[in-house]
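Recall the central idea of this unit: under ordinary conditions, the amino acid sequence of a chain determines the structure it adopts. In this exercise we apply that idea directly, starting from the sequence alone.
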Amino acid sequence: MKTTNKYSLSKHLFQLLLEEPFFASISRVVPKIADSNIPTAQVRIEEDGNYIMSYNPEWFSTLSDAETLSVLKHELYHIIFEHLAKRIPTQPKSISPGDWGKIRNIAMDLSINAHLSDLPLTPSGEPACKPGFGAFKEYPDKQSMEFYLKMLLSQCEDSGVPAAGMVDEHSEPSSDAQKLAKERMKNVITQALEDCDRAEAFGSLSSGVKKDLIRSFNSEIDWKKVLRYFVKTSQNANKMSSIKKINRRYPYIHSGRKTSRTANIAVSIDQSYSVDDEMLGKFYDELNKLSDIAEFTVVPFDSRVAEDKVYTWRKGENKKTERVLGGGTCFDAPTEYVNNKGFDGHIVLTDLCAPKPKASKCQRMWITTQKYASKPYFTTNERIIAIN
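Accordingly, the structure predicted from this sequence is:
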């Protein structure tokens, strides 16, 4: 990967922070990598489900401040609109793989560029494709990628793939990576919407896009599915000898190796009367169903962890909330305990009414009630779900 140290995005990322708070909230969780091997810029999803933004520093150095800001927002719109995290429509038999990739990229860009001004020319000197202009003069404004995809396919039947100035191009991630990316980014976007709504500062994000996002991301979430997904993504693969499995290299001489996947999950329970028996009962019902793929360690805490009351939860248990502590809440205490013990995942049952905790060494999720999930005390990129 060719890179250069002569150009820095820092100035424009700071400008994004000052002028575009919503986009800045998304941008801060997306690493940026200089790469001279790509013509302009692109976002992609890695196999671990994380988004990466790459940019060509030589091309960026030729842009004005306004153009740079528009390109950054263009890339972030791909994330916000979930263009790469959605299931890709089936390729029509009449369209070649190469043309299908071009058409999808054009549809993505048409859905974004209608919301942007000051877009630069492409490296080949073409204006960026936009509804109402050039080959897309008859296309209506501000529609979805799926809408434009249908129009493009219809146009291709008559006259082939239209010439279009492309700001960027995107590769197709695996389905597993798509699912991870969608789940991880959902909380980031939801939190950004809530923060900007509180501050009444969305920048240039239109009211129409804002309403669509709120409707999309604030729909009812099945907390049981989210919990199962969290546990499954915390699993580690362990190999053990087994006489029931044939050793392929030395059959009937050495035992085979059986792979089992288990997760060692810490469940920290807030003792400040914010977790009642009904909420805990529903949660334990789900632990019963997940006990075959994970081991759960219950960690009572308030401003400290009651280490003498920590226990391994057993299948079939449905304990009432035992108040073993009663002080104020501090999330640093269970975080330090879990970090030191090397758990695979950390679930915290709480009302979220305490300062933001230290970073967790394993993935962490927060479970609370609908009331507290809608307005948490602190902001976080970690998953917050409500038991309903």
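The chain is about 35% helix and 15% strand.
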